[in-house]
């Protein structure tokens, strides 16, 4: 069945460091891929998405490229800020399996000044 | 976009009791979703709440344990019945925005439940 495997955390970085959070997926069809972010005390919100192979989603300096050959959707940011401290969830949606969203376990990021 | 208010934000309950979680959306939505996030695990869909019909439950979840109400297009409740410590989890309400490209979920801030 469909699933998402996400890099375990927690991750602690210094401000302006480079961030990578790995995400790989298993799907029967051609899913849409997402990164959601949950800031402290708030609900999950969509950060970026990509709907087909080689698409790049980007938002707030974060990027992720849909790599079909490696079934991956790694999240990257060149220079993190303290305000990026949050929990990040990778997710997929596969129309072949009823349109349900499948989420990873979440990766907690703390950025220290 | 949609703004979701979920309450309570957290609760500590005794074994064998029930807790009802409320979810209020600031706009009318067709489907509302209830997720569970157990410690160290991914979000798992419990059920989809449709207005005017029975909720649709995912494998492993049953109506007797997680009854859902959906009285109108902006409100839903999830009850966790006859609780045990294994029900300790974060419960999340969610709706989908099908406009402007769709496939965008909005979430409440969650209910953190601890069962003693």
Helix content of chain B: under 10%
- The secondary-structure class of chain A comes to mainly beta
Strand content of chain B: over 45%
Please give the radius of gyration of chain B in angstroms: 14 Å
Q: Give average pLDDT of chain A, whole number.
A: 93
Distance between the termini of chain A: 41 Å
**With helices defined by DSSP (H or I, 4 residues minimum), what is the helix count of chain B?**
0
| Rg value of chain A | 14 Å
What is the makeup of the main sheet of chain B?
Answer: 7 strands, mixed
Element string of chain A (H = helix, E = strand):
EEEEEEEEEEEE
Shape of chain B: globular
Counting DSSP E segments of at least 2 residues, the number of strands of chain B comes to 11
Helical content class of chain A: under 10%
| Overall strand count of chain A | 12
Key terms:
heterodimer; A: 113 residues; mainly beta; four-stranded antiparallel β-sheet; 12 strands; globular; B: 116 residues; seven-stranded mixed β-sheet; 11 strands; 0% helix
């Amino acid at each position: 069945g469909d699933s998402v495997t996400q890099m375990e955390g927690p991750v602690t970085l210094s401000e302006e460091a480079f961030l990578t959070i790995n995400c790989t997926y298993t799907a029967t069809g051609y899913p849409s891929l997402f990164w959601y972010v949950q800031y402290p005390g708030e609900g999950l919100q969509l950060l970026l998405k990509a709907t087909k192979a080689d698409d790049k989603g980007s938002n707030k300096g974060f990027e992720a490229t849909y790599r079909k050959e490696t079934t991956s959707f790694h999240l990257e940011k060149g220079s993190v800020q303290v305000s990026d401290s949050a929990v990040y969830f990778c997710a997929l949606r596969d129309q072949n399996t009823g349109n349900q969203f499948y989420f990873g376990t979440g990766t907690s990021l703390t950025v220290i000044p | 976009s949609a703004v979701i208010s979920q309450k309570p934000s957290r609760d500590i309950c005794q074994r064998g009791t029930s807790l009802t979680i409320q979810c209020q959306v600031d706009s009318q939505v067709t489907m509302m979703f209830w997720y569970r996030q157990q410690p160290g695990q991914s979000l798992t869909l419990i059920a989809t709440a449709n207005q005017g019909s029975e909720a649709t439950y995912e494998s492993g979840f049953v109506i007797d344990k997680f009854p859902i109400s959906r009285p109108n297009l902006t409100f839903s409740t999830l009850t966790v019945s006859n609780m045990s410590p294994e029900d300790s989890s974060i419960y999340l309400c969610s709706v989908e925005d099908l406009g402007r490209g769709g496939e965008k979920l909005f979430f409440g801030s969650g209910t953190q439940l601890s069962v003693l």
